[in-house]
Amino acid sequence: MRAFLGMGLLGSNFTKALIKKGEQVQVWNRTTSRATALEAFGAKAFTNVADAVKGADYVHIVVKDDAAVNEVLAAAAPGFKAGAVIIDHTTTTVEGAKERTKEWKEKGFTYLHAPVFMGPGNALESTGYMLVSGDQAVVNKLEPVLAPMTGKLLNFGEETGKAAAMKLVGNSFLICLTAGLTDMLSVGKALGVNGDDILTLLADWNPGLGVTSRLKRILSAPYDDPSWELNMARKDAGIFIDATAKGGTHLNVIPVVAQVMDEWIAKGFGNKDWTVISKDVI
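and the corresponding C-alpha cells:
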C-alpha cells in the first residue's frame, strides 16, 4: 500500500495512475479539498498527514521545495510504518537530498530522491523520465516500484544527490529554452513574422535536433575552427536588439548574451568560434 503526500498536478495524477494499476493509495494535501477530490477515483483521503501514511510501505511526496519536504515528513513521521520507504519526487537542492538520505537512514527509514521530467499528463500516463541515484542496493530494490510510474527510469549511479543535480541541470535548460523562444517570438513580431510563420520554419529546420551535437561541439572547444565566428554572431545579436527596439518589443536573454559576447571580443576572441563564450565553464 502507498501513501502520496501533495496533491498538486503531479501528485494527483500519479495517484490516479497508481489506482488504475490496482494500487491502494492514501492521500494528503495541505488544502484538504484537493485530497478529498481523489476519493472519487478510489483514493482514501486524510486531513492529518500522520494518519495518511499509516500502514503504507511506500510514502511518496511531491511538494514545493526542501523546506516543505522537511516540514511535511516531520509531521508525517509519527505515522510511519517500521521499514517504510520515503520516495521524494520534489525538485530540491542537492544538499537537501543528501541530508535527508542520511537523516532518515539514521532514523531507520529509507529515503530515495526520485525527481522527474514529467508533466501532469506524463504522471497520468506513466510516461516521461524519473531520475534516481545513490545506494545501488536501494535503487535496485525500488526499481520495480518506480519503473511502472514512468516511461524511463534513469539511474545516475552511486552518488547521493546526483539525481537532484541532474534535475536542476535539466530545468536550467528548460528555463533558458522558454526564455529563448520568447526572444525569438519578440524578434519575429518586430520583423512582421508571426508565431505560425515560426512554426512553419521549425517544422523543417528544427534546431532542437542539434542540441546534443551542439553540446558536444562546446565540450570539444573548437575555438580555432569556427563554424560561426563570435564577431558575426555578435553582429546578428545587434540586429535583433535594434529591430526589437524599433518594433517596440522586449528581449529577455539576447541583451545579456550580447554583453558576454562583447567581453570575449574585448579579450581578443572575436575571430574564434562563438562557443568560446562557454570557455570558463567547461
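(Above: one complete record from the training split.) The radius of gyration is 23 Å.
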